[in-house]
């Protein structure tokens, strides 16, 4: 565990130093932004292949200078076969421009090979944007997204991962609306608890006349509970 805390320190120092270098190269007049996403997640694994989760995230934009708002997500999963699970969630975002409601549905397939694990996730999303500006009509948008992810666990307490995820908008001005490319590390810091540190490189093609670029540094605290059914009394217990 001490080695894991030392690893956390190294990663945070690396992120701070390198993001300062990256951010110093941009200008406020450029269509680029540097952001920080920070949150916590509770995940509960239930019997019979079911699962649920609650996720909260606060986001800072404009080179970390502006608090953009909060994002709260409630999700559910159901494993249908050994390597495939269905996923659904609802997200409420209270941000500067208004209140956004988003629902998602899809599936994720995963397969492990030794210390490596690979995943493919496909989602369809529908979002309603309720703007604070009374002169601006509410906006409904639909998206579909595909994520490929690879994980590597060099030790029991450390997991490295990379992922790429193009996000396509139904009826968008371009085939791809934006593209999330992420790299991160999940480090076990306590029982059932992992610290997720990540960097995201996110080109955005939503504008018809110019492209944008978002670079994100994030930190998330993930806590997982496993609920199992007792073989004797039929009671539900928290797995050790």
TrEMBL record:
Keyword presence, Membrane? yes
Please give the Pfam families that the UniProt record associates with this protein: DUF2490 (PF10677)
Enumerate the UniProt keywords alphabetically.
Membrane, Transmembrane, Transmembrane helix
InterPro entries per the record? Answer: DUF2490
Q: Mind telling me which residue stretches traverse the membrane in this protein?
A: 7-24
Which protein, by its recorded name, is this? DUF2490 domain-containing protein
Q: What organism is this sequence from?
A: Flavobacterium keumense
